[in-house]
What does this fold into?
Amino acid sequence: MNVRLESMCHGDGKIYLQMAIERMSAGSLLLLDARLKDGSAVPAHLFPFVPQSSESKANFVVVLPHFEVREIDLNFTEFNGTNEPLGQSRLTVETSALRWKTRFNALVRNELTLQMFSIEREYSIDRMNVFFTDAVDDGEEIVVKALIDMPHIEGVDVMVRFMDETGQELDLPVYPLIDEVVPAQRLGDEDRLHIGFSVRVNRTHKDFCVSVYDENDVLPGSFGVFSDETYEPLHENYVAATIDAGRDERYDDWYHYHCATLAELAHQRIARFPFEPTISLVMPFFPRDYPYISSCLEALSRQTYRSFELVVMDACGNENMFASFFKEWETDTRLVHVILEEKTESPVASLTGIMQSKGEWCAILEPRVMLAPEALYEFVRAINEAEKETENKKETTQTITAIYSHHDHVSEQAMYSKACIKPEFSLDLLYSYNYLGPLVVYSREIIDKIAKGPGYSTESFSYDMALKAVECQGKFKRIEGVLYHVADLTAPVEANSMTYAEQEEFAFREGRKALAQHLRRQGVSAVVLSEAEQQRYRVKYQLPEKHPTLSVVIPNKDQMALLDSCIASILQNEIDVSYEIVIVDNMSVLPETNAYYQGLVSCQPNVRIISYEGEFSISSMANYAFENTTSEYLLLLHNDTEFIGKDGMNDLLAYATRADVGIVGAKLLFSDDTVQHAGLAVGPRGATGNLGWNLPRSAQGYMKRLMCPSNVSAVSSACQLIKRSAFEVVGGYNEKFKLAYYDADLCLKLKKAGYRVVFDADVELYHHERATRGHSITHKDRVRLERERAYLHYLWPHYFIEGDPYLSSFFDSDSLYGQLAF
It folds into this structure.
């Protein structure tokens, strides 16, 4: 047997060799064994090859991992139906020549090179194939996700082996993600098995080779190499898919495209509204504001709506400086100048200004805030729309009493960035931090109600005022527009920056007190913690003195290993109430399942099994369980979930006892600590989407929504803690949803009935969905899913027309990350 290397190149961490092999017998079997110089085995594949160029005599291609070694020995053995080899041949590949030979072949023999690179695809149907699907940066580590695609046949035992960049054995923990059968789509094709897994590698030593093989030698294996060549395109795709409005470097272009045009501004200047209120803009003015005041006043002078007053609360103590900054306003009757003592604090200045202002609507305008030309016009438009709505409904109270909008930040170079595109009013996000931003316009009605009710405080004034507006039944309206820009703190000199930083730090500390006092006045028993590093508050709700009752409902059919892990995590929870675990068994067929149930019930008196004999449907099984329980609260868990930590159940239950909350969900994680679910959005991809999908567990998410509790349209049924009284009001789960969307539908019904749907980011569970053997989506299931998706559209069409209220029309309609639509 004669073996000759005709050509070589490399790419995607692999070496491709074109071989001309003269065999002793035409029908013989040719085997390849690859070794390093120390004898370590190297994964290697030998594929028949028919070159497209007549100049090439190659008839095989060898594929090897591109290790950081000088040489790899190739041993070819030819067999002809017997155990005795017909012949053998040995070849040493010197990898040092790879770079220049790859460049040469790309120029001279490009067609053959491309043919080599696609050789594995040509033989993929009858073997295992491994692909890298994602590279997720998570601090000092990278989460590398991979997928094995293979024929679904019996007798295959899939094994995984890892090697470092030098070909030595590497021990990496494997996190299973999916294990599902993909039915054949065409007559004659075979079903495919997809096995997904991930590993974590240190970013400074990220290179590795993964080899997948069949322990029983039924199927040929495969390998993949993770290196810079594979990481960089995966990382770029991941960043592009998950970029949010706050980090998108294209935002400046986006804003200039979406802001009001010159023609629109001209129209606004001559437009008239039925109701044209005076808007009082209260401006606390301190020496730290000198770098910003000119830009702020210039923006104010360009407003298309002119009926406003500017109440300047001057604590500078320098008349000459004031006169120089406000020279253009000297004769403007809309300017109200109030001189304060030099040591007056900003909250005192704001409060004093509001009390002295005369407008029907009022806002604090910090000098760092530059209004867009259309800002006041859009606020007044919203007010008039609300007035018209009030008239149509023949109501006596205003439909809105507070208005806020989106904003961004502006640099000294007038570049816009760090957009804050906010959800519709989310009380629970407000309880985490003041996401409303520095500019909120309040009606005089709510200002007076606060004064007569809880009164004003100078502790974190803006945040405190928003909370007190909530107490006074204030109704918040979001305007879908970027109506102001906040100057970056990096713009002024360092001393001034520190002054603003100190002010914000003080406001954050005082904000915790304001929130705690607000909850106390509302009769909510809670402890408010502040997390300074994340600049957020955490509300730890307390259970009422009369402890509520709780039933934990788990639908199940066999799957004992999953169920046992789920129950073990429940039993490890430290919870202040007595509870029962109700397993809804759906005609399990394995005899060991019944034995497991008997053992479980005998050692855990708070566990009971109820039988459900219909087809497997979580919506029907959950309704059946709720009919067979009497607890005030019900926690629906999928059997493939596990609580992380010991406080999850107690926190969910305490949260749900708040009078306005109907249902609470948790953060769900894949086993590799990436996010599977941080609330459900209704509308993405024509159905529902898991917010934060595939982001690292440590990610804050856009507007901090992966780390803060917030209101969402829906939460996953994998973990839903439900108030029974609310559940009964809306009639439970809609059993027409057999496979999916029953969780979203329930949440939307609760929201429509006036209850809040809460995503609690502080409670985490692992969700091993699709990670167990045997999961399969049949063609019949696909048809059923499509019908249920259409039914969701039928029941809730405005979500698919207007979009999810907790997202924005400015976002890509399919994005789960707050990504701008271009």
